[in-house]
Amino acid sequence: MLVVTSERVEGKNVVETLGLVKGNTVRAKWIGKDILAALKNIVGGELREYTEMLSEAREESLNRMIKEAEKLGADAVISARFMTSQTMGGAAELLAYGTAVKLG
Fold first, then answer.
1. Rounded Cα–Cα distance for residues 101 and 75 (Å)
2. Residue 3: helix, strand or coil by DSSP?
3. Which of 9, 34, 55, 95 could form a disulfide with 24 if both were Cys (CB 3.0 to 4.6 A apart)?
4. Which ranges of 11-47 would DSSP assign to H, the alpha helix?
5. SS3 category, 53
6. Of 29 and 77, more confident
7. Predicted local distance difference test score (pLDDT) of residue 33
């Protein structure tokens, strides 16, 4: 499945717009990661535990969006975006969304 952030795919025409597709995941912080992150905050450096958690969340939400597009019979998802929001203390949602299309 082709996923792009642009409104079109070079060399292809959108022949049908199938609609909005999305995929999301909500992740909560783990106390062990919080302790490691707090220590890193003191000495400085990348908070790898959170980087890994957010990377995994992005991949999961992207895969869920792609599955929704595949169910519609799409060839691609255009105008793909990511959005995050805090759902409650210590938990965040990561949402991937875009427009499922057929290309010609």
1. 6
2. strand
3. 95
4. 31-43
5. helix
6. 77
7. 56
Predicted confidence (pLDDT) per residue in 25-68, tens digit = 998 866 555 555 566 566 667 777 778 888 999 999 999 999 99
What DSSP element (H or E) covers 78? strand 76-88
Fold (CATH) for 2-103: Translation Initiation Factor IF3 (3.30.110)
CA distance 18 to 68: 11
Which pair of tokens denotes residue 57?
């969340």
Q: Residue 62 CA to chain centroid, in angstroms?
A: 4
For residue 94, give the amino acid letter: L
- What pTM value is reported for the model? 0.83
Extents of the domains making up the chain: 2-103
The H or E element spanning position 100 is strand 91-103
Structure tokens belonging to residue 85: 């929001």
- Check: CB of residue 14 under 8 Å from CB of residue 8: yes
Angstrom CA distances, 7 to 11, 37, 76, 85, 98, stand at 13, 38, 11, 24, 10
